[in-house]
Specification:
The complex is a heterodimer of chains A (164) and B (127).
Chain A: E1 3-9, H1 15-25, E2 27-33, H2 35-38, H3 41-48, E3 56-60, H4 62-73, E4 78-83, H5 86-96, E5 102-107, E6 115-118, E7 121-123, H6 125-136, E8 140-143, E9 152-153, H7 154-158
Parallel strand pairs in A: 1-4, 1-5, 2-3, 2-4, 5-8
Antiparallel strand pairs in A: 6-7, 8-9
Helix pairs in contact in A: 4-5, 5-6
Chain B: E1 8-12, H1 16-28, E2 34-38, H2 44-58, E3 62-65, H3 71-82, E4 87-89, H4 94-102, H5 107-119
Parallel strand pairs in B: 1-2, 1-3, 3-4
Helix pairs in contact in B: 1-4, 2-3, 4-5
The chains are: A alpha/beta (164), B alpha/beta (127).
Chain lengths: 164, 127
């Protein structure tokens, strides 16, 4: 399995991803799936400069990523697929037709309309429903910000309070 | 810590900024020259807003961050694009902050000088 993690993280490429997950998983590539970033050279350069030179970064739209997941699965080194939102991951899952089997909720931070579920996960009702829809489609959805943290199953996540 | 005009922000993970500033204070009594910021539990947009507000509040033109790939660094890089004259220094260490704090030069020039000197502070001694 070359894609080691499908992660929802609203910070996209940052320390937890590059160092926290990147080093223990020995990541060779990151696929950043975001329609806006894929359309912006400046955004791509911003994220590219945050990644060590030995790590490749691919900036793709949801539609492009869905057609290339099989290709990434064949690569010799492990990688991570990142989206910045539940909604984008949901679209990738639907466009990927069964290729995405697990989803890691790594960071969805506070914003208006979101309720606290974990210290690092806040969800709107639509986002909670979106995660449940992924699970209903057979995807194993869990929350975990860093590799050493406890893996929180979806059922627990959807009923969690931040002090839990 | 004696109240002093803030000359720079220090932004990073967890309590990194508060911790390194406390070390500056212990060594020089000049910790008040820095304002600490943490990205803990904040999304990318909120980190950017927090730093922008701190820049506006303090008038600082230099921001030190801990990790080149960190979310504070990413946020400040976006602000550098919007704010001419703002300087970002990533990978800060204690030697760099001490050198910066002890210089009378204006902050951007002091940061340039401190960066050059701080590079040599990382050394390996093997037995």
């Amino acid at each position: 399995m070359s894609i080691a993690l499908y992660r929802i993280d609203d910070r996209l490429i940052h320390g937890q991803v590059v160092v926290g997950w990147g080093q223990p998983l020995d990541l060779g590539f990151i696929v950043l799936v975001d329609d806006d970033v894929a359309a912006s050279e400046w955004e791509q350069e911003l994220y590219r400069m945050a990644v060590p030179p030995e790590m490749a970064v691919h900036f793709l739209t949801v539609a492009e990523a869905a057609t290339r997941l099989h290709e990434f699965e064949q690569l010799p080194r492990r990688g991570i697929v990142l989206t910045g939102s539940v909604e984008t991951m949901g679209r990738l899952i639907r466009a990927g037709h069964g290729q995405v089997r697990t989803v890691n909720v790594g960071g969805v931070h506070h914003a208006t309309g979101r309720a606290a579920r974990l210290r690092y996960v806040f969800l709107t009702p639509d986002e909670a429903q979106g995660l449940q829809a992924m699970a209903d489609a057979g995807v194993d959805v869990t929350a975990q910000d860093v590799p050493t943290a406890r893996i929180v199953p979806l059922d627990e996540l959807l009923h969690a309070s931040p002090d839990a | 810590m004696v109240a002093q005009p803030v000359r720079a922000l220090v932004a990073g993970h967890g309590t990194f900024a508060a911790g390194i500033i406390s070390a500056v204070e212990q060594i020089t009594g000049l910790g008040g020259l820095f304002a600490p910021l943490s990205n803990t539990d904040l999304g990318a947009g909120d980190i950017r807003t927090m730093i922008a507000e701190a820049l506006d509040r303090t008038g600082a033109r230099v921001v030190f961050t801990d990790l080149p790939a960190g979310s504070c660094t990413m946020a400040v890089r976006r602000l550098v694009r919007e704010r001419p004259g703002l300087m970002l220094v990533t990978g800060v260490n204690l030697s760099l902050l001490l050198d910066f704090a002890m210089q009378p030069a204006e902050p951007v020039e002091a940061a340039r000088t401190a960066v050059e000197r701080a590079r040599s502070a990382i050394a390996v001694h093997e037995g």
